[in-house]
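Lab notebook, page 48
Experiment: co-folding of the full assembly
Goal: obtain a model of how the components sit together before planning crosslinking
Operator: M.T.
Materials (sequences as entered):
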Amino acid sequence: MKNKLLLLSLTSIFIIFFIIFYKSLQETNIYTPDEKINNEIPSFKVQLFYSNNVVNSSEIFNLDKFYLLNIWSSWCVPCRQEHPLLMDLMKNKKIKIIGINYKDTKKKAENFLLELGNPYDKIIFDKKGINAIELGAYGVPESFFIHNGKILKKIIGPLNKESIKEIKLLIK
Amino acid sequence: MLYSVIGHYSLILGLCFGLILVYLSIKNFQNSKILNSKILSFTFLQFFFVVISFLCLVLSFILSDFSNETVFNNSHSTNPLLYKITGTWGNHEGSLLLWLFVLTLFILIFLIKTKNQPIRYKILTLIFQQIIIIGFFVFLIKTSNPFNYLYPIPKEGLGLNPILQDPALAIHPPILYLGYVGSSIIFSSALAATTLNMVSKKWASHVKKWVLISWFFLTIGILLGSIWAYYELGWGGFWFWDPVENVSLMPWLALTTLLHCILVLEKRLILTSWVIILSISTFTLSMCGTFLVRSGILNSVHTFANDPERGLFILIFLFSLIFISLFIFFFFHKTNNNNLSNLFWLSKETSIVINNWFMMYFLSVVLIGTIYPIFLDVLSAQKISVGPPFYHKLIIPFLIPFLLFMTIGPKLKWIKSNLDDKIYLITLLITSILLSLLIVKNFDSGFLINTILISSAFYLFFITLRDFFTKKYTNISQNIAHFGFSLLILSILFNNLFSTEIITNLKVGQTFESSKTKIIFESIDQKKEKNYKSIIGNFSIQNLQGKLENLSPELRIYNQPNIVTSEADIKTTFISDKFIVINLVPNQDYFNVRYQVKPFMLWIWLSVVLISVGGLMSFFRKEYEK
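Observation: model returned without errors.
Model output:
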């Protein structure tokens, strides 16, 4: 009896697995990241957060400036932790921080910025998470240190004091 | 053209032989007194036709026959011969044909090599294996035929992806497949043994050989993939926790656990359920990996092929196998009462069981990290991706008890035991702790966890090292493997803790200076090869002592398809790797230079080789342990 129950429940679990895999097959939408070997910023169309204008990614990054491209989201807890560091980094005039708002709703993101402050020079609104994938990101939070249109450094996971220190060193 | 036709029809013939074999086996199953010699010859014929078909595809690639769609998509007449040949399995269709090749090869070897086992068992294993083989035949012919014909015949092919044009990657898939497919034999024979209720010590020592051989190939296969990622992807890491890497790690974890369970089963006839469930799950995990990679569900750095229709086929096939094995397990498997309850707490088998649970934990972490994003996407349309921090946080703390049990376990005896030479165990423990304190003392972050982690790895290292010099423990293969594992953990830890990196932009003739190193960009050379042009940068690196070292990283511009790849230049020594890679800055004469010093890189590879050597030695040993 006990055995049959176990069999039944296992079978149903696997059936659920099957259905889920089946469904995800139906809605396959693949955005494979571009090759990471060549670490220049890929060129793609992005939507800006406040103005809703669609611009090309290359228009955002000037060649001779330093940029920190930070992928964030209001639902992401580590993003909250790293946010004060970004606010601090904003004071540095040599670097501009560009945000990518990743798979988020506008309202929640705005509330997030109201609560914790807005360190970003510009924000890219990446509702589907496609731009992040095109950059070859693993997830949120993730930051790219950009100079001369090249991704020089990539910080996976939340920023911490050491990575900020390193960034400041690089700017000098 | 001719070869495509031959190849295509050989595939169909192979499928026919599969069907005949199933029919014959079921018919002869009733009167299995005589092992039908027909079965052996038909299996051989099936293998023969798959070989013919595979050779036809290889020939089409060598001759650059672009009337064949697979060749057209994945080759180019200027590719070097080696990469024309390896291009055969560098794509979806060809790699499936390779799967079939190994599948039929293994069942043939199984039938020839298996003696002293009941004939009914051999025939039943053959039936299960043929079900898998037929499934792959149908999959290949229906959804991914490697011999599709193109008309009009294109003049030139699209070329092989340059990042696949690499010697390590050329042999990586076949070796990995030997491991995957080896697990199919374990799967079939475990099902057969369960059905016939003959899971015994004798069966365990028979199937152990198959476990060891597939484990060996899987280990080497993963190693090759990792080495390739290290110097070809150009980020200087060796493991990215990428879903495609994870799906090869999961069967490895299951197989390693199975290996240890089989050893216990062979001695004590316990853990039978463990062995059967693990045999089933190793193969299903391999299949699941094939599904995830081939269907393109996963977003990954190296998703090479994707097609929903193929995904659906593998999905249905995979779940039919799961359900078949589930029902066989529940209706035929008799749990023996000689169960875990009479395990003494201090014995070899107890420590193996505990570490099995740890392995299962690691496996579930990887499994959840890999498939949970898919589930979440379907159920709530949210997208997340799981990165290295997740795996590190969940796995690293549990490595500590795992390493300790790995140290103590092999010192214990079967059934019931006391710890011998306590003095040694304690002295070495203290030595390891002191040594790691000495190493970690300059670190301000993660002091405690690093100390404990390094000490437990050192502990295993010293204990296994000492065992090489005492004659008391005869189990040398196990000792080598465990020693290799401690070396692996140590090298990974040191590599993470002591790696340094310099990133800068340089023009030819410029010099970058930091407190410890001086990078001089001497000159650039240009070279022209058959299918690419290359720019070679010559760098001199000067360290504190003024010692000079020359490194020349390369940029390759492939003509077909038009892709730029960077080839890192790596100077490997026993202590550390010096890794340099350059990239073009567009429209400028600057080069982006990335220079890394990565200590103990070589030891990571060597220790994995040691681990697999341990497995291989065990394969050639007649008797495991007295």
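Interpretation: The radius of gyration of chain B is 26 Å.
Next step: discuss with group before ordering constructs.
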